[in-house]
Structure formats: C-alpha cells, structure tokens
Amino acid sequence: MTAGQPPRVKVKLGENNYGKAEVNLMKIGRDTPRHEIRDVQVRVAMTGDFGAAHAQGDNTDLIATDTVRNTIYGLAKEGFAGSIEEFGQELIAHFVKTGSRVTGGFAEFTEHLWERLPTGDGQGHAHAFVRQMPKRTARVESGDGKTFKVTSGIQELYLLKTTQSGWEGYLLDERFTTLPETHERVMASSVTCKWEYAVDSCDYDDVWQRVFGQLQATFPDHYSPSLQNTLYRMGEAVLNACPEISRIWFQMSNKHHLVYNLARFGLENRNEILHVDPEPYGLMEAWVERAE
Amino acid sequence: MTAGQPPRVKVKLGENNYGKAEVNLMKIGRDTPRHEIRDVQVRVAMTGDFGAAHAQGDNTDLIATDTVRNTIYGLAKEGFAGSIEEFGQELIAHFVKTGSRVTGGFAEFTEHLWERLPTGDGQGHAHAFVRQMPKRTARVESGDGKTFKVTSGIQELYLLKTTQSGWEGYLLDERFTTLPETHERVMASSVTCKWEYAVDSCDYDDVWQRVFGQLQATFPDHYSPSLQNTLYRMGEAVLNACPEISRIWFQMSNKHHLVYNLARFGLENRNEILHVDPEPYGLMEAWVERAE
Amino acid sequence: MTAGQPPRVKVKLGENNYGKAEVNLMKIGRDTPRHEIRDVQVRVAMTGDFGAAHAQGDNTDLIATDTVRNTIYGLAKEGFAGSIEEFGQELIAHFVKTGSRVTGGFAEFTEHLWERLPTGDGQGHAHAFVRQMPKRTARVESGDGKTFKVTSGIQELYLLKTTQSGWEGYLLDERFTTLPETHERVMASSVTCKWEYAVDSCDYDDVWQRVFGQLQATFPDHYSPSLQNTLYRMGEAVLNACPEISRIWFQMSNKHHLVYNLARFGLENRNEILHVDPEPYGLMEAWVERAE
Amino acid sequence: MTAGQPPRVKVKLGENNYGKAEVNLMKIGRDTPRHEIRDVQVRVAMTGDFGAAHAQGDNTDLIATDTVRNTIYGLAKEGFAGSIEEFGQELIAHFVKTGSRVTGGFAEFTEHLWERLPTGDGQGHAHAFVRQMPKRTARVESGDGKTFKVTSGIQELYLLKTTQSGWEGYLLDERFTTLPETHERVMASSVTCKWEYAVDSCDYDDVWQRVFGQLQATFPDHYSPSLQNTLYRMGEAVLNACPEISRIWFQMSNKHHLVYNLARFGLENRNEILHVDPEPYGLMEAWVERAE
Known about the structure:
- Four copies of one chain form a homotetramer.
- By secondary structure, chain A is α+β, with helices and mostly antiparallel strands.
- Chain A has two domains: 18-147, Roll (Urate Oxidase), CATH 3.10.270.10; 156-289, Roll (Urate Oxidase).
- Chain A has helices at residues 51-56, 65-78, 84-98, 204-218, 227-241, and strands spanning 11-29, 36-48, 102-116, 128-142, 149-161, 187-197, 245-254, 257-259, 273-276, 281-290.
- In chain A, the strands form two sheets. Chain A has an eight-stranded antiparallel beta sheet.
- In chain A, a hairpin with a 6-residue loop joins strand 1 (11-29) and strand 2.
- In chain A, helix 2 crosses helix 3 and helix 4 runs antiparallel to helix 5.
- The longest helix of chain A is centred in the N-terminal third of the chain and has 15 residues, at 84-98.
- At the A-B interface, strand 1, helix 1, helix 2, helix 5 and strand 7 of A face strand 1, helix 1, helix 2, helix 5 and strand 7 of B.
- Strand 4 (128-142) of chain B pairs antiparallel with strand 5 (149-161) of chain D.
- Chains A, B, C, D: Belongs to the uricase family.
- Chains A, B, C, D: One of its GO terms (biological process) is purine nucleobase metabolic process.
- Chains A, B, C, D: Catalyzes the oxidation of uric acid to 5-hydroxyisourate, which is further processed to form (S)-allantoin.
C-alpha cells in the first residue's frame, strides 16, 4: 500500500469451494471377455470451513487437490460399480468423512459414450469400441456428505428436421422486425438438458436411455410452431415416460439454416439450398415441471 | 403415445428465458480522426409471460430472436455511448418496454480489447489496432426493466510467477496423499473474476482498469502459501482500491507446472525444466466480500 | 522507410492462392417425402495470374471472394447432385471458366454426417436426423480446370480397444528410456485418413463406406504390436477392398491410457483404472501404397 | 478375409514419420534474480527406415515416443540455451545420432509469449509474467541430422484498421457478383506467417522481433486496395528489414466486418455499426520472395 490509497477496508470470505477439475478417468470391466468401459471427465469441488486458508494462508487439514485426484482414481477401483450418479455420491461422502474441514461439495461428470464396433453376428465387438455423440452428464451435490441432490443430463444432442416447423404470429415490431413469417422452415438444435429426481435413487442408466429415446421420438413427431413449443413437448414426453424425474431443464439453441437468396441469380430456392449460420443463434432455456 | 405407456401426467412451465446469443458487434467512433472501437459479443435473454408459447405454441406478442438481433445493432447506433454495463441496461429496458409479455431479462457481454498499433510518437495509431488478451465481461440483469443488477468481469488473465509460491502444511491423508510439500514452486493461473457494485452507477471503464491493475500488482507482491490465499489477497486489494465494488468472485485454475524428473537421466532439475500439465488442474472459486 | 534502413530490395510474388473458407452449406433433397441432406463446410481457393493484384493493387478481372460464396450456393442448386468429390470438380471448373486470370485451384470439404432418427419400422425417419461422428472430407485440385486430383478422407474416427495391444522390443536408450515393455495395454486412436484414386472417377460414396467399414473391421482383428503395424494393416485392408484407391495416408494419434499407480494406495490395478492423458500423444503418419 | 473378397494385393510403406506431439515444456532461467521463461509446445517426428515396424510389427531399434518425450525434457536442461530454432536442431541431431534407423525428422514449436508484469520503475517484474498474444512458431527439418531447413513464424496476430481500405475494380460476374464496390471499409485479419532463411544461422530472436515490428508498421501505413496488396507490402517490408530472410509466406484471413443495414430502421450507418461475421471469410495465401 502506498501513500494516497484509501485506508485498508475489512474483508471476509464469502461462498467458496475448491477441488480438482478435468480428471480424465477410464474404468474397464474385465470380469468377462466381453469388456465394459466407462470414460469420464470428473470435477470434484469441496465446500466447508476454509477461511483460515484464504485469509491467513493456513493450510492445516486442507485436502490437497492432488490428493483429490488420487482419491478419484482410488475410489474408482474400489467403487464405481454402477452409474456416474452413484460414483459422485461415493466421492463426496468420502471427502466429507476424510477432511475435518469439509462439510460438503459437488462432483460433476462428463461421460463419453462408446459403441461396440460392429460384428457379423450383430452382438458388437467384445473389446473394441468407437466413440459416439452425444455426451452424458451428471452432477451430485451435498451439504453434509449424506444426503445428495442428483442431476443428470445430455450434452450436445444435435437434432435437425427439414420440414414440419414454422414461426408465425409473433410481435411485428414496427421498427426492428424484418423477419418474414413462415410455416415451412428447417429446424435444427443442439440440445443440452438436465433433470432432477423425484426419488432418492433409481436405475440412472435406464432413466438416461429413456430420456434419450423420448427426445429423439418427440422432436420430429409434431408440426413445431416454435422451438419453445418443441422444448415443452419434449419435457412433457420425458416426464410421462420417467416417473423418477421431477423436472427437466433444456437449453436449446436455434441453429439457423437460412434460405440462401438465389433469386438474384435467376434460381428458385424451395428451401433446398441453405446457409448454416454459425452465429448468432436463438437460445431458449426452460424448466418443464410436474404440475402437482 | 402408444399402448402400455403411463397415463399422461400434467406438466407446467418453470423458470425460463429466451433470446439471441453470440451477436458479434463492433461500434466505431469516427467523430475525430482518432477512431475508437468497441468489439463485443452479446447475448440477450428475455424473461416474462411465455407460457402460451411453450404450452400451446401461441406466439402472440413474442419478440422474435431475429428482432432481438436487429435491435442490438439498432440501439448500438442510437445508444452505446459508454460502457457495456450501460449498454446492457439500455437493451433490457428496451425489450421490457417493447414486449408486452416481457418483464425482465439479462444481457451478457464478452468484449475483445484492442490496443493501438505502436507509433514513433508513443501515441499509438489513430485507426489501426491489434487484439489483446484478456477479455472484459459484463452481465446486466433486471426483473422490471428499471432496476438493474450489474456484474463486471475479466476473463482469461493468465498469470505466472516462477518463485515465491509454495504449498505446505496440508492434510496428509494416509492413503491418498502422495504430493510432497514445497515452499518453492511455480504458480500459474488463468484468472476469471466478476464483481458486483455497491453503487447504482459509476465509471465502469475506470473501475475495470483499476481492478485489472490491482490483480497484476497483487499477484506477485507476496510469498503465496496457496492459490486460495493469493485469491483472497487479490480480492482484498480490489475492495481497497475500488469503493464502488461490494464483492468480487474469483475462479482461479491452478495450472500445474510439474518439475520433470530428470534425476533418472543423471540431471539435476532446480525447478528449471517443467511439464506444463494441461490436465487436471486445481480449481478454486470464492467470493471476497466487505466485512461490514 | 526511414533513414538508416537498407535500400529497397526487389521482391516478387511466389506461389499463391485466394478464395473463401468456411462456407457452410446444406442441400436438402425434397423430391420425395423421404428427404436427403448434405451438410458441408467448403473452402475454395483459386490459383492463377494474380501478380498485379498483389504488387500493384490492380484488381482487374479478380473474382471477389464474396462472388465465390455466392457461386458455391448457386452451383449447389444447379449441380451437387452427387458426392462432394464431384461437386468440387464442378466448382473448380466453373472458376477457371469464369475468371480470365484463374488457371486452377482447389476445393476442400468437411462433411457432417447425419443419421435418420430411429423409427419403429427400422426405416429411419423421413425428415428428421441426428448428427454423427466421424466427419467425411474431400479435396479436389486442378491446374487447368479440366483434369482433377481427387482425395477423400475420414476425420476424427475415435477407436479404442481394451486388450490385444502391446509395445515391446524397442530401443532401450540407456539414458532416456523409462517406459517398461508390455504386451497388454489399451490402445486408442483418433484416426484421420485420406486416399488418392487409381481411377478417373468412381462411386465416391460407396468407396467411402467401404473404407469406413474396413477401418472398423481391421482395427480390432489382430494383436497389435504397435500403432504403426495396425496403421499398415488398415491400409492393406483398404487397398484390398477398394481397387479404386491407389494409396492411403493415415495420421493416427496414440491416445495414451496410462495405468494409474494404485499400488501406492494398497490397491491392485489390472489395467482397469486408467488416466486418459490428453497430452502428449504419439503421432504416426504414413502412406500405404500399392507395391506394383 | 472372407469369401468373395478380392485376392490379397501387395502393398508397401510410403513416406512416413512418427514421434510425439503436444509436449508442453517450460524452461526457466534462474541464473540471476531476474528470471527468464520459455513456454513451448513441441512436436518431434522422426523419419527413417521404419518398414519392418509397419509391415512386420518388428520394433527393433525403434525409439519409443515416450523416450522422445523424456529426451525433449532432458535436452532442454542440457541445451536450449537460445532460440527454439536452435533447440529444434539439437533435438533432430540427437535422434539421428541415437536411433540407428532414424535418418532425419522435424521439430515443430508453438511458443507462448509472456510479458513481465508492470512495475513502477518500468523495468517489469523480475519473476512474474502475464501471457500475451500472438504466438511464435518454428519448424526445423533435416534429412541427415546435420543440415537443417529452418522456418520461423507468427501465429494469430489479429490486426484491424477502421479506414484506409477498399475493394474496387474487380470482376463483375453477371450472375454471381452482388457485392458493391467500396473505397471505405474496415479491414481485419488474423495473420499467420512463416519465413525461410537465406543464411545458415542468425539471431533468430532478433529476426522475429524485426518481422513482428514490420508487420505492425506496414499494415496501417497505406491505403489498402486489397488484402493481397497489403500482404505483399508486408512481405516487401520484411524482406527489406531482414536480409537474413529469403522468403516469407502469409496466410491472411479477411475477417469481414459487415456494415449492418440500419436504413431499414430509419438510421444512418456511416461504417459505425458492424456485424463481425465469423464465417465465411476470405483467405489469402502467398509467398513473397526476393526477385534475384
């Protein structure tokens, strides 16, 4: 502090957490010749009484983030027998038990999905795989290491339909509206979603598959008057198919496929030649919830 | 719905918003031969009464996201005379006024900073620029279009020091701790931060510069016993230098620079040869706030 | 030029080209209710007599890159009835014909592949799709606009096998070799490849599918003593299955899946718990060619 | 191979190389309290007699890519006293000497540049730094481990000028030209360049600084009739200022800043409000060479 600066003000630590991010872990099940793989990127963050570390530089009883990494790999060996949602609970419970200053935390997962390489018999290869889109996600949060709030999700499911979509009847701002109405357009969206549970535990893998199936089935099953309406219908379908889920959140980008103006070149364009505009895009976010 | 599925459940719309993302806008001030530029990526999202659009596909009085884009460019011409923080307020106020269903919303900015190209006289070029790191950010949120919560920030300020950093005295977990203690290490962090204001309005550009200066001055001015402590000191310095700021949040990654084991090759390594490990990294998040 | 600088040297233009990059184009076939889509990112570059433009700033007879863009969309409407390899030839031929200074050029394509959304009857949806990995690529080059060198490829085919791979018998450098030999490891690779043709034209779509099939069939069908050997076998399989192809080039990264050292924690690790190391990676590049 | 497939054809190995990519290395000079840092990402690839490894899976005398990594760090300690261009030569020479099958190879560097944090005395901090743009690159190639072809470069130097640029007099294609001519536009380019040397060795750091200075000085010093002409002028300036350089290659993207059509909203737009279009972009590539 040099002369002329204001006198030192009193400060305090607010909400905080720390941990390890981008821990890339693969677990291979080798119990039978037909191997199983789980390929995840993990972030673990701890919450608790970390005031002395911040304010005084006192690291007493702090779990090093390097220890967090080691623990993730160690517990993956001893546990992680099921879903990422369950593994997240194992991790948080462990850190709360181990660190006297740790009272809670969260674990976040991004899971890469792999498909067995094709074989003649249709069974898929026993130990060879090819990576797929989209990605599966999960987040487990706890304030005490005993009770957990679990969220699951899907990342970057890129869907498109070439017809049965429109955008009409909206506000015609006298100054700034230039977009013409249409009942025939291409609709494309990179869908990210996450959902919360109405139950304490369930078959998370099975729920994920059901959600994934509902999104793919609902996206094309209706004329879409707006991305918002399709979002809502997808949420409704998920809540119908999955009694385990209490509510679901979508972030859906509207990836604009603009009809390129070919009339200037003496060519007709019946929605056949489109500019896939990377930017900007409409972006819709909403929760769809059970009504009672 | 096919046979065998559960009866249709009742659903409702929860929290939601929509708008336009990744609107890339440059505004050039040409009033004098010494031009000024602002280069921003904008996201605007509106909140309000959008239930009919979601549930019934009724778009009545909805502002199209294409209109949002046009408006951003149009208002940038008429307004945007000052900071992104002020432009965000202009935008949200406009949409609340324009859309009968819009009650609020938020605007987010990522601003690319440019420096004048060097000239012999040290003044910098009048109309030629080179892009810089880090980036400036802002977020403006409002529930009514009249009162605003403003947050400002810095993104990807990558700092490093080659000494005056250590990590000691932490919990030695009997099983999972393998990291040796050290009082001499390289510390590197990609700093992202954001702050809230104690005042209704201020010179946002000037505050940003002061924060930027404090981060650069504080990062190296002490022996760092942990990234957490350095984070806290940076927050303290900012709150001292900027009475306009009520609290500041940091997300600081600990980019590990690992001393490469050269002893295996008969070579000594006095912290000179390091592996810059991209993954995993420690990740610290905390608010530093005024104590009273 | 200021005083003290060396006298002006004579310079000339060397090899050069210009054009438009990242033109994102979708073409939808709507002739029947079962729609077809092609989703490509195109770069077109022209070569020719562009000396005056560079040296004197004389743009006479230069085709604007904006015209290149318009032309890509226009010709996509009139042509692009088949593969990207054929469309590339249409494009280059057009620019050579149109621009008096243009003598040749190249067109590069990255094609996003889409799969029909699943339907109950196994036929796939008539107009709704989900985006897939990997990507298809092509490059068409010509010096005269009449004869063409065509290259096709696959980008980012991420393959992994959990066993039947090793790395033994290599040079044990007395100083710098620390890696132990193994006959049991995980092998993973993000495969990029491209191939040249022995024929003037062929069914490019069909060839691509055969190559894709061969890569997936060959990758797991042997014990792999090295990524190089697997690369070679994949090349051999492709040349066997595709008489249309003269040679094929692979770039295969060796994505290291490191057995995490759990012995430190009293745990056995039989290749089950692995660190998926993002960096560094082995990188192999080779052409596999017909022997006579 | 199953029945019905064509008989096995003879194949052979073509041009090939292998090595390690994305080796992230920092070297810190600690000889005085004023530390120096070099922060590089390295790729090393070896060429030579690798036929047996590919065709027979015989790894005899092959240098493991893990050994390549160890060697990069080890030699960085023993050597790397100067520029990346010289370090590349040390590396390739080493691998040719060490591997009986290795006859040559190449080393590629991407160097992150750091600036000292500001201090009151204008000297910059002794051991604290902030990362800068653009990046410095180099490539060293050799067929024998004794003679080297060195290329140096700059990556992602993002330049912009708000005036003194136009695009006129080009070909007006009767069908596909829609762009109006202009003598007043914004010109922006992300410049990547690389140069070859007329001398066997020189002060590579000093040359790099001179090139960097010339690019920044030349970009704004003229009215630009085209990006091609500015590219050529930048090349001419570099060849004038750097007798060590034989020729220089540029890849310059034309990042279009489109005047947003505000007339539709009753607003005049004198090149003030622009859409920074991310895609597509003009892309120019050219060598500028000494004329005799």
